[in-house]
Each structure stands twice: as structure tokens, then as C-alpha cells.
């Protein structure tokens, strides 16, 4: 993608769970080469928006367009194949497998099929290819020295990096991260921020869902703020920080 090119367009996207409107006609655009933030209080509809973009949830209405193609309603695997990859809010891993194995399997599953099924389907050639790719992506984010450790032995910070390596195995142009900094120590947040900046410098676009305002402010080019399922505002970090409406949403006043 050319820097600045509209990569992902979210148009009047809506999700209802019975009578609850979790996402209420939200629109925004992610451009190639930028880090976009999606913030808002708990329950604002951030994860649901994420799941609509990545095909994990079916749209009630609205459109999602990736590089000019309608992807809204496609299965998540089809969307991943086009270059959109994601991590989940809660780390998904097999604790008694190594970091490398977790990343290699994730690259195969693209977050969908069950791990056992995935393993049974592998032939040797494919397995070699997956492990080589997993190793490459772990090295890319500075985790090469930990790839033979058991995933369950990692602290939360490295676990989140492992998830990013896994998401990178499908060679995405757009990476979506759901609360990657949640629960991390200060140093781990800094390490994560450095990795995300590096990915941006390599030309990747990112959508970062975060509850942690400080983390998002230092990292993003633009921010969409959600509250009660709707888009409250969109702007640069400075504009968002200066907004009385955003302060009110966060402080609940
Ligand atoms: P956020 O990620 O911003 O904290 P969510 O997108 O997870 O918010 O949730 C938005 C709203 O939708 C919340 O009120 C939540 O309880 C509700 N919700 C989310 N997922 C479901 C679901 N699968 N079924 C019913 N309600 C849901
Ligand atoms: Mg969430």
C-alpha cells in the first residue's frame, strides 16, 4: 500500500445484541502507514467494532471496505488472507508448548481452527515453512532468544509480543491490536511501544484499541473515541486530549 492511501474504511457499522446497540453506526478510515487509536471507557464497543472489522462477528448493518473491496460479512480467514491480522484482548496460547510452536501454529490457524486439527493437517513441507516464518517474525520483534521457552513461563509483556509475532505470520498490511498494553508493567509497555513503532516504520498500519490513554497518546497518529457504542470524536492525540467531551467520558461526569 502507498503511504496515506485509504486502507480500511468502516462505514456506518452497527451491531445489535438483542435490544442492546453495542456499536451504533460508527464510521472511520485507517490510512496506510499510520497508527490509529480506538479508545473509550469499558463497554464503549471497541472490541465489538474490532470483531466486526475482522469478521469474528456478523454486521447488523454497515460496510467494511479493505483496499476498495467489501470485506464486511466475509469469514475472518478470508479477511486475514487479504492482509488484515489481529490479536485478541485475552492472550490465546497453549502454555506447555514453546513460544516458537505457539507462533507457528497461530500462523497456520490464523486465529480460527482448533490447534489439534491444525496439527493433524500439517505435512512436513508446510511445517518447515511455518516454523521458518515463525522464527523470522519472532526475530523481527526481538524475541528470537526466547523462542524455545514454554509459552506459559513468559511474563505477560513477552506473551503479548508472542501474540504479535503470531499475527505477523500472515504478512498483514494492517494489524489490529485489542488492548495490548492492558496489565503490563511500565517497562513492558515501553518495549511494546517500541515494537509497534518499528512495525510502523516498516510500513505497516495499525489499529490500536486501548483503555490506557497515556499509552495511546504517545504512539498514535489519529484517535477515534467511542462512548456507549457511538463515535464521540476523532482527531490527533493533542485534539483528543484537549476535548472536554473526552474528559467527561473518561471521568464519567
Ligand atoms: P469495549 O471493548 O469497549 O469494552 P465491547 O465491545 O466489549 O466494549 O462491548 C460493548 C457492549 O456490548 C457492552 O455493553 C457489552 O456488554 C456488549 N456485548 C459485547 N459482546 C456481547 C455479546 N457477545 N453478547 C451480548 N452483549 C455483548
Ligand atoms: Mg474490549
TrEMBL record:
It comes from the Bacteria. Residues 8-253 form the ABC transporter domain. It is found in: Cell membrane. This is Branched-chain amino acid ABC transporter ATP-binding protein/permease.
Amino acid at each position: 500500500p502507498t503511504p496515506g492511501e485509504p486502507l480500511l474504511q468502516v462505514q456506518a457499522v452497527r451491531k445489535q445484541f438483542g435490544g442492546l446497540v453495542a456499536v451504533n453506526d460508527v464510521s472511520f478510515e485507517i490510512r496506510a502507514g499510520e497508527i490509529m487509536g480506538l479508545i473509550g471507557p469499558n463497554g464503549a464497543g471497541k472490541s465489538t467494532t474490532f470483531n466486526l472489522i475482522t469478521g469474528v462477528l456478523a454486521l447488523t448493518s454497515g460496510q467494511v471496505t479493505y483496499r476498495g473491496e467489501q470485506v464486511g460479512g466475509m469469514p475472518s480467514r478470508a479477511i486475514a488472507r487479504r492482509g488484515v491480522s489481529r490479536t485478541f484482548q485475552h492472550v490465546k496460547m497453549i502454555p506447555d508448548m514453546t513460544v516458537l510452536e505457539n507462533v507457528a501454529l497461530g500462523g497456520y490457524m490464523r486465529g480460527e481452527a482448533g490447534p489439534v486439527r491444525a496439527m493433524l493437517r500439517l505435512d512436513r513441507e508446510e511445517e518447515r515453512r511455518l516454523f521458518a516464518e515463525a522464527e523470522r517474525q519472532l526475530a523481527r520483534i526481538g524475541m528470537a532468544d526466547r523462542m524455545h521457552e514454554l509459552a506459559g513461563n513468559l511474563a505477560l509483556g513477552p506473551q503479548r509480543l508472542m501474540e504479535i509475532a503470531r499475527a505477523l505470520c500472515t504478512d498483514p498490511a494492517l494489524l489490529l491490536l485489542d488492548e495490548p498494553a492492558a496489565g503490563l508493567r511500565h517497562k513492558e509497555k515501553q518495549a511494546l511501544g517500541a515494537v509497534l513503532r518499528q512495525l510502523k516504520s516498516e510500513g505497516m498500519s495499525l489499529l490500536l484499541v486501548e483503555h490506557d490513554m497515556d499509552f495511546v497518546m504517545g504512539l498514535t497518529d489519529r484517535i477515534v473515541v467511542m462512548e456507549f457504542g457511538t463515535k464521540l470524536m476523532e482527531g490527533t492525540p493533542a485534539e483528543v486530549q484537549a476535548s472536554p467531551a473526552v474528559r467527561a467520558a473518561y471521568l464519567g461526569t
